[in-house]
Structure formats: structure tokens, C-alpha cells
Amino acid sequence: MTTGGNATGMPMSETYTPPAIEDADWVDWLIIFNDRARDFIGEFAQETAGSDDPRGLSAKFAIAARSLTLIRSALVLLQNEEQIAFRIMARGIIECAMHMESACTTDEYLPLLYDDDKASRISRGKLLQKTTELSEKANSKLQKFVMGDGKTKPKSMNIGELSKGSNFPRFQVFYRQISADAEHVTWTSLCRHPQETFDRIRLELDPQLEDEEMFETISLIALAAMTVVLHLRHSLGITQNEEEFSALGRRYMELYREGVAEFGEQPAEGEALPQDSVVPLKH
Q1: pLDDT confidence band for 3 (50 / 70 / 90)
Q2: For the segment 209-244, what is each residue's pLDDT rounded down to a tens digit?
Q3: Of 43, 91, 137, 159, most Cβ neighbours within 10 A?
């Protein structure tokens, strides 16, 4: 599968005309999205005086900022033809989409996030006690933190629980798939690097993805990007630049269907994109 020509040749502009979006290939689509995402969600600032949940709002902004940072980095990797690193980056973007969906649709998100953070700190504290010689005072202070209040034990966040009830179970499937075949050191991920011929084994530092894997990776990054921005737009009641955002949604659907026709992938949820991303939002 060809992912695009010279991606750096796409001009940066305040807006993109419909033909530029309609004719975009996958790489051009990501470049346009990366260029315009800030305008789709407005400034990373919001009055909190009238907000019922200022911390929840802060978390949503932070998830969006993290996802846009990763998307920008993913584009650099793709343009440098570092395809395995590009696939690894996709996992982080997918994770942001799962977190944003949960943050915008459930009241339990922040308590789960707090609990996960505390569980991680306690775990690291226990490890520090085992592996480091601490002063008596420092160890005593750390022990009090590790023991907690003795009432409730914080739980680490389970990605399956986080995405329970999600409109996109495909996110969880490929989050785990990319973890196994690219992100983590596994037999599957290691087997990408040795290139065997009849008389020798050569190691490939930047092995290329199969065409189907590239389609899977780039389409999931695009879907995750749209999901993050769409949920934030809904959450904040943002409607500006709606025509351009919807045009990107329609072009995504066209590119995705072309890939499905070529590779036969079908999303488990029966939909490739939130419907509200390709029609005007109603408030």
C-alpha cells in the first residue's frame, strides 16, 4: 500500500480547501489533521469558574495535548520511513483515544486515574525499599506512604475495564496487538529484525511493515485522532471549523473503505468512525 508521496510538500495554511481534503491520501490526511487540530478544539484554555468539574476538564485537555504531540511525532517517523517506530507510536495515540472516550462518557474516569497513579507510586515505593539503602527517617516516611490508610488498596487501571462499553472495541484489540508485535520485546516483535537468506542472516534495523499492517496502523491513528478531537468538541460545545472537520471525517471513511476493499479488514463495531464526525454537530 502506498501511504503517500512527499508528505513535507503539503503546504501549511489557515484552512484547507475541500479539494485538498478530498484528494488527500493517508499521509496528506494526517498532515492536514496535524496542522488543523488546534483550530478544531480551540485554545487549550477554558474558564473554570462555572465548570462543575475543573479537574475533569483539565484531564481532557491534557489527553488531547498528549495525543497531538504523539501524532506530530508519528508523522516525523513516517516521513523518515521508520515504520516500526511509527507503529509503536500508534499504540500511545490509541491509548489516548480510549482515555478520552472514558473521560467524556463516564463519571468513574478520574477516580480510576487517581487510583492507578497511587497504586503505581506505592509499587515503586516498595521496589525502592527493596533495592536502595535509605536512611531510617526516609524509610519510615516511605513506609507510611506504602502502608496507606489501611482501609482501601488502590488498584492499577485495567485497559479492558477502561474501554468497557466503548463504541470502538477495535482500539483495545489493536492496542494489545501492537503491544505484542512491536512495542514490547516479544518473540513476535524480535522476529521482525532477522532477514534470512539461503546462506546468511542479516539484521534489519528499521524493518518495513507489510502493506496490510501499514493500512491498519495509519487508519487506526487517524481514527484515534478523530475520536479524541470529536469527544473534546462535544464536551466543550465547540462548533467552529465544523465543515472542515466533517470533510476530514468523510475523507477518512473513503480511505478506510478503499483499504477494506483491498485488505478485507472489518471493524468489530460495524462502524469505522463516529457518525457525528461527518455530519454537523447539534447543540
Answers
A1: very low
A2: 999 999 999 999 999 999 999 999 998 888 889 999
A3: 91
Cα–Cα nearest to 99, from 116, 85, 82: 116
Q: What does pTM read for this prediction?
A: 0.83
- Hey, what long-range contacts does 178-184 have (CB within 8 A, 24 or more apart)? 178/87, 178/88, 178/90, 178/91, 178/94, 178/217, 179/91, 181/87, 182/84, 182/87, 182/88, 182/91, 183/88, 183/91
- Tell me the pLDDT of the chain averaged across its residues: 84
Instruction: Please name the residue that has the C-alpha cell 462518557.
Output: 105
Q: How many residues does the chain have?
A: 283
- Cα atoms in the 13 Å half-sphere on the side-chain side of 37: 27
Can you tell me whether residue 231 is helix, strand or coil?
helix
- State residue 202 phi and psi, 5-degree precision: -115, 135
**Distance in angstroms (rounded) separating the CA atoms of residues 206 and 201:** 15
